[in-house]
Amino acid sequence: MNWLTPLGFLGFIGLLILFLIYILKPNYQNKNISTTYVWKRSLKYRKKKIPISKLRNILLIICQVLIVCTCAFILAQPFIAGEDKRSANEKIIVIDASGSMLAEIEGETRFERAVTQAKTLVNETLDKDSAVSVILAGKEATFIRQRATADMRDTLLREMDALVDPNDFKCTYGASDIDGSMVLAESVLELNAKAEVVLFTGTTYIDDGKVTVRNVSDPGEKNVSIANVSATREDNFYRIEVDMISYGINYSGILNVKITGAQGTYGIGDSAQSLNNETLTFSCGVDLIKNERTKFRFGSKETYDISGLKIHAYDSIYCYIEEKDSLAIDNAYYLYGGTPQKLKIQYYSTLNNIFVNSMLLNLQDQMRDDWDIDIKTIKDSSDAILNGTGKENEIEFEGYDIYIFEHRVPDELPTDGLVILLYPDEVPESMGITLGSQKNLAGDGTAFTAGESHPILEYVNASNIRSTRYKTIPNYEGSYTPLLYANGEAVALAKNEPDSKVLILTFNFHYSNFPIIPEYPTFMINTLNYFIPTTFDKNVYNLYDKVVLHSRSELLTVAGPAFEETLEFKTTPAEIYVDVPGSYTVTQTPISGNKIVENFSVVIPEEQCDITRQVDTLTNPFFPTVIEDIDLDLVIYFAIALVTLLFCEWWLKSRDN
Fold first, then answer.
1. pTM for the complete prediction?
2. Where are the alpha helices (DSSP H) in 595-634?
């Protein structure tokens, strides 16, 4: 029992007043009186009632004492406090495992400091017989242990030690799932709304709400970062740009650049040297202002430091600094893709078709960032040339990625690349295709319709294509897919198998609007991307980006720092998510037999390089309203007792009269 107003116990002074009244009460004396018979009889009756009168007087005194005590208790306002088993000492610990937590000083990372301090808080909490939950905010938020008590202390501490095991370090290189961690914290707060949420991080939050943030960064930390490297064509030469930022300090140092497979020139005047697939290295001094992005350009009119650098192709650009700062993973940057893969096309026709030639030249220009297209054109109607026995400008049946035959087709088709047949006179029996008779229509001819949905027909409106001269394909065997129809009969087929890639168009370009409408270039670009796709869509990915791989062979392999063993893919497109920065190598051998090796790099997000980062608001979990157990107010019960005692005192007093 508790008392809201303990001064109310001064009401017990009333007991002294009551006792004083009884002490000062006048005593009546017995006197002798002459009596009659009636008086004697009355006196005899009263003598028989004396024992009961004494008991009534005692009860009357007890009632009066209890009345005074009850009044004193009421003045003190008694209550019984509600029982609340929820402890305000319970802790929900969130450990930030983002890339910036890898910043170190004197050999200790922020993440290691966070785990050490979190373990101390765990011990302090468990010593108070309370519970503790530990959440790791990595790529995805996960519980290390939920509402652990003192009997789980050793197990929990071992699990936290495992987070900083050098062989299985749990700190990531990318952004951490802080929002997800707060969602997990909510599940604990639903059980105990009094629990305290504590976040160990290196990020500064201007408004952290109800979460207790413990910043584990060190004032001595510094970081010099190569934020980005790009190469942009300018007047047919690459302009190389390197973005650098110094966090926390002003910096003066050296930027090193290594270019492999360089083709072009380097130097000015007599000192200029020719570069033919060579390795070029140079260094330049850099001065960085604290927290300001600075761009350094090489090989352009706006050159910052190096003059006379003119490179039209390269294999890789490697930029690095040797500064020993707090975060080493952003001190180097790889850039690939300066030498597009070679794509060889052989075009044979018995007639001079300007539409095909112009399209090949257009592809050569539009796709130069992805492909170095080499075109060989043959125009001859002799059988010797057609069958590869001519001495001059003869057809080659291997070594090309795309073979285009217009009108006349050889008896044996090449097998090491894509074969495109344009309005063929005949086709080899081995293709499993039967050509119908030629259709000659008047006027604008017939409009085509599309076959089933196909990547080659993406953004192509088949109804816009018309032709007055075409051949139908009434029968075809194997895995051919019909692309276009004329009056219900196929006029375009495609087959894409590892050992056989074929596209056949049986309408005459000279009698069709196809070469002069937008569908033509779209169709041809889609064809190239479908049969000979680029392996990946860019050369630099951010951490956790989805990398989509396309293969032109039966087997594609990927090797890099994120994988203990080389990954193998027999079916593409394949998707991978890379969680370790660095350089990755993709290898494949297409049906041409020429092994292809390509590279891409993965970098950490720029925000993780900023070890001085400030965030406006920290996402908070939902804190439920704390509903205390209701206290039991005893005043009403004492009031009932007081009324009862007053009634008893009145009744006893009335009996006395």
1. 0.75
2. 606-609
